[in-house]
Amino acid sequence: MPCRLAACLLAIAAPLAAQAARWQLPERGGLLYTRALTVESKVAPDGQHAPDPWLGEAQPGTLFAGELDGAGLRRAGDVPDPRELLAHVALDLGAARGGKVQPVMRSFGRHQPVRIEVEFDAPAAGEQAFRGTIAFDAKAARGVGAVAPHEPRLDGTLRGRRTLDPANGRVAAFDGTVELALDYPAWVEGDRKHVQRSRTLKLTDAWKAPTAAGPDDPAFQERIRAAIRASAEHLRQKIGERADSTVEPAADPYHDIRPGELAIMLLALRRSGVEPRDEVLTRGFARLRQCRIEGTYSLAVAILAVESLYTPTSEWAELRAGRLKTPMARQLPAADLALIKEWSDALLDNIDSTVDRAYVRRWHYGPGVEWDNSNSQYACLGLYGAQLCGVEVTSAVWTAALQHWLQEARNDGGAEPFDVTWHKDLGKPGRTKAGAKLQPRGWSYRHDGDVTGSMTTAGIAGLTLCASALRLQKKGNPRLLADADAAVRAGFAWLQQRVSVRGNPFPRDVRPDWHLYYLYGLERACELNHVALLGGRDWYIEGAMHLVATQRPDGAWGNWSDTAFGLLFLMKTALPAITGR
């Protein structure tokens, strides 16, 4: 009998211990850690050209609730970057009582497949040591047809120690090192052969002092407000410099983005709540009105910037509450209305002439025989802003632009349950799923490129704006509008599978390419359509966590445009759109 009782107690204790090891994170939020990462490199003879086995900047110390696997034990998915390896291992609570873990590392174009094996000691007084190996996986390499023999190979070891906090369901801190040998064949032109070269890398990583972040966390909301104030002040200084500078005429005005840089900074500063009479804004807008602007992006953002001077303050709140059915009229003085009309006329000429404009409209930097979805998106944004200001944009323009976005939507991936939560459904029991399985569809920069997150948000925004403009004019073809609504949902089905704020989603990974541009596009696509959650993940809170963690002391992210994109994301101030839901 005592033995049976002991066995029963052990049977009960095991699942209880497993439950205690689960992460306890704020719903729709996560944890922000203080991270200290250093990378030391030693070059072997002739190894100075060895490429890094990663792309872009390292990630901040963040863990999102939406990243956890179904058991709530570890980050789902594989390791995207050797600099994240120690964190993936140390944040795995599946080994909280000791044991082995085998994370999987990606190898897309940066290194050949590796096999990782890590062993955890049993915890002692809340401390737990671990160690592991990283080795070239010949078997996996044979099974990956895209892996070329000349891609780098990684081998190495890792070790570390972590402090567990079972009472709060988290890892309180960890530190350790990853030592890597990077071997790669380099092409020697004179000898016309590959020679083996190498270098070693030592990564020292430490995370500590986790703080909670979530939509209902007052301290985190204050951090967002502080980030907004800091980035707005940074832009104030940059706008002042730009307003006072002498700008020589560009040799190619269509590719001159300097007016667009000034305009996006003015737009962000205005959306952050700075009043139009502010001295810096006044000087900046005076300079913008004097600029020679001919390129699509710069024209569009200039229209949006001037439109923001006359956006009714209460409009978004009234639309969200349902007290307004359509956007409010903008009251512009004659001079600014004439300027927006001039810029709109120029935008309408910057189209691809290889297609009949009566049926399809798509844009490039200037008039010609090319197009891209980035300029096409901004052209729609600019023309929609112009229409809100009272400039006539015919229904034929919107219909032809809508046809382009429908033509360029590409099926990508298998059918998935559509899992989007609208703002109006937040706080209601359970998540609202608007339909059965959908075929995801995405967009690329050009027709022959990869479908990406930044361009899929562009496709969603372009369709939404075209359909909204037609609905406001009461001139849209019902079947065409229904096709647009279906394509928007298919675009969100693509995003919900790959949503990330750590970089720009590509078909197989997340990359640093156009990261802040993508975040602003994500905000715009979701806010235009009143989307609060994608696949149950709060895109805004996660994006805000990333931004507050990566903001520089001077308030900036990247360059001037990146800082404006980050500020616009945090402000959530997309144009008002009328959707077909």
Architecture blueprint of SSEs:
Blueprint: H1 2-20, E1 30-43, E2 62-64, H2 85-90, E3 99-101, E4 114-120, E5 127-136, H3 138-143, E6 153-165, E7 170-188, E8 193-213, H4 218-244, H5 258-271, H6 279-290, H7 296-308, H8 315-321, H9 334-349, H10 373-388, H11 395-408, E9 410-411, E10 416-417, E11 420-422, E12 437-438, E13 441-442, H12 453-473, H13 478-498, E14 504-505, E15 510-511, H14 515-528, E16 531-534, E17 537-538, H15 539-550, H16 560-571
Polypeptide structure, described:
This protein has 581 residues and is α+β, with helices and mostly antiparallel strands. 40% of the residues lie in helices and 19% in strands. It has helices spanning 2-20, 85-90, 138-143, 218-244, 258-271, 279-290, 296-308, 315-321, 334-349, 373-388, 395-408, 453-473, 478-498, 515-528, 539-550, 560-571, and strands at 30-43, 62-64, 99-101, 114-120, 127-136, 153-165, 170-188, 193-213, 410-411, 416-417, 420-422, 437-438, 441-442, 504-505, 510-511, 531-534, 537-538. The strands form five sheets. The chain has an eight-stranded antiparallel β-sheet with strand order 2-1-8-7-6-5-4-3.
Helix count equals 16
Which radius of gyration do the C-alpha atoms yield? 26 Å
Strand order of the largest sheet: 2-1-8-7-6-5-4-3
Helix content: 25-40%
Class computed from helices, strands and strand pairing: alpha+beta
Strand content: 15-25%
Poorly predicted tracts of residues: 5-20
* Residue-averaged pLDDT: 89
Label the overall shape. Answer: globular
* Distance linking N and C termini: 64 Å
Q: Could you describe the largest sheet, including whether it forms a barrel?
A: 8 strands, antiparallel
The number of distinct β-strands equals 17
